Amino acid sequence: MIMKTTPFLTFLLCTLLSVQSIAQPAGKTNRIPLKHGAHRIGKRTDPDMQRWREYGLGQFIHWGIYAIPGGQWNGKTSSYAAEWFRSSGLITHEEYDNLYKNFNPKHFDATRWAKQAKQMGARYLIFTTKHHDGFCLWPSKYTNYTIANTPYGKDIVKQIVDAYTAEGIDVYLYFSIIDWSHAGYHPGAPITAADRLNWAGYTAFDNEEDKARYETFKTFTRNQLIELLTNYPEAKGLWFDGSWEGAWIKEAAWADALGEELRAMHPGLIIGSRFRADENGKRHEDTNGDLIDDYDQRFERNLPNTLAQTGGNDWDCVTTIPENQWGYHRDWSLTYVKTPYDLIEMTVKANSLNGNLVINFGPDGDGNIRPEETRIARETGRWMAANGDAVYGAHHSILEKQDWGYATEKDGTTYLTVFNKPVNNLLRVKAPRSTEKDQVYVIQSARFRTTGKTAAIKDGGRDKSGAVYYDIVLPAEIRKLEEPFVIELKLKQVSQKEKAAYQQALT
Ligand code: H79
């Protein structure tokens, strides 16, 4: 009897459970057990990640042999991303794969770059140790396609790590999983829409030979990552790219084990969500919707607009100065080029939504940072030096998004960074109604950061929702400014009674 009932009950239970897991969307309360999903729910709370969270602004550098053609070859210009020049059709693969023999950046001076980054206000650097072409800017033991075999010869990654670390800028190593130079590398069979619906049936390779060769590529990838962390122990983390191809996605279990191995050898290591998938092929967010690894890498060149879109996760946004050029491209006239104020606005916006902004630089083949980027670094840095308190360590504020710009908050101070100066010179600030019935927020004081002067505040009334408005009177010296400015507010929560007394005192 028991023998008969038990399998039946088990079957029934399984059926009910599986129906339930189909009927209800995967959520925080109904988790599907995963071997290779997120290993942590919610944010990391350790000091290394806390430091990451307070960077505010970073620098990305894309440098490699693609800097030699700089998007042009035989008098023709490619509108392709310059670091993808090998695939542009303007150069043969053979020509491209021999360019390294001419790589001799005689003007390269890591200290000059690091000092410029410091002056710009960058608190971390992400540096391309190896892009998709596979060329290594460090003398890797595992391939000949490295800086050691160029006329230049010296270890560039080491010089970068040393120079930036000396300036107090934390270094993260960019590493492309895609590697066109390795014989075992393979993207896998193309993933069709049907494969995505039936993941378990998807084959990573068309044939056994590619599959066997891919094993050599996996070993090579692991060796290089261990080599990087061994050679450059000062590095704080790894920034992965090129991890979206089927063959790699299929290696979820192997990549997970590798990630754990790297973390064990390098305590505090920070890895973004673009390293590995879970066992169902889900990337960034696992099957349960939890963020894989330490921060969200999905906002590339594309900021979120609301905190809800960030899912409450840590995140960074890496952005280019032209539309989509990461490596050096000689011709920046092809697309819109961001101004320093565009980039400052993106930086403040990112921090108001609890993320970091990272601005990309693409030095040329001689090791020079182009004049346009130097100007951007200088002007961004000038603004950050005066107003950086609104960015570094400053995060989402209780104030909702308003037309004049972005609000951030740090240690009890609210910073209003104003990008749209009102023509009537009254800056209207909406303070939220508190959730407590008898309490509202008031602005206790407001100060212009550039002048240090206290702002005059007019009562702007309330609306039906109970929100309170204040009009900050912009004085002549602020009206004259032709750049974004910051107002520091002290907000106070007071009871209705105190609020009445406060209003009385104002009259
Ligand atoms: O390193 C930068 C890019 O090269 C890399 N990620 C950033 C940080 C990246 N690799 N692939 N992609 C981004 C997305 C793929 C874009 C492509 Fe294309 C579309 C490849 C070919 C067509 C963009 C447009 C690159 C060449 C033309």
Structure description:
- The chain is an alpha/beta fold and 507 residues long.
- It has two domains: 35-390, Glycosidases (TIM Barrel), CATH 3.20.20; 397-505, Immunoglobulin-like (Sandwich).
- Helices cover 29% and strands 19% of the residues.
- It is built from 13 helices and 17 strands.
- It has helices at 2-23, 47-53, 93-97, 110-120, 156-166, 193-197, 208-231, 246-249, 252-265, 340-352, 371-387, 476-479, 496-506; strands spanning 57-61, 72-73, 76-77, 124-130, 170-176, 237-241, 270-271, 315-319, 355-361, 395-396, 405-410, 413-418, 426-431, 439-448, 456-462, 468-473, 485-495.
- The protein has a seven-stranded parallel sheet with strand order 7-6-5-4-1-9-8, with helices on both faces. Strands 10-11-12-17-14 form a five-stranded antiparallel sheet.
- Helix 10 packs across helix 11.
- The longest helix has 24 residues, at 208-231.
- Residues 1-27 have low confidence and may be disordered.
- Bound molecules: ligand H79.
- Ligand H79 is lined by residues 62, 80-81, 83-84, 241, 318, 324, 326.
Overall helicity = 25-40%
Order of helices and strands: HHEEEHHEHEHHEHHEEHEHEEEEEEEHEH
The number of distinct structural domains comes to: 2
Instruction: Determine the number of helices (DSSP H or I, runs of at least 4 residues).
Output: 13
Q: What is the level-2 CATH architecture name of the largest domain?
A: Alpha-Beta Barrel
Report the top-level CATH class of the largest domain: Alpha Beta
Large-scale geometry:
globular
CATH superfamily of the largest domain: Glycosidases
Question: In terms of per-residue confidence, which ranges show pLDDT below 50 for 5 or more consecutive residues?
Answer: 1-27
Tell me the Rg in angstroms: 26 Å
Say which molecules are bound, naming each kind only once: ligand H79
Reported for the largest beta sheet, the result is: 7 strands, parallel
Give the overall average pLDDT: 90
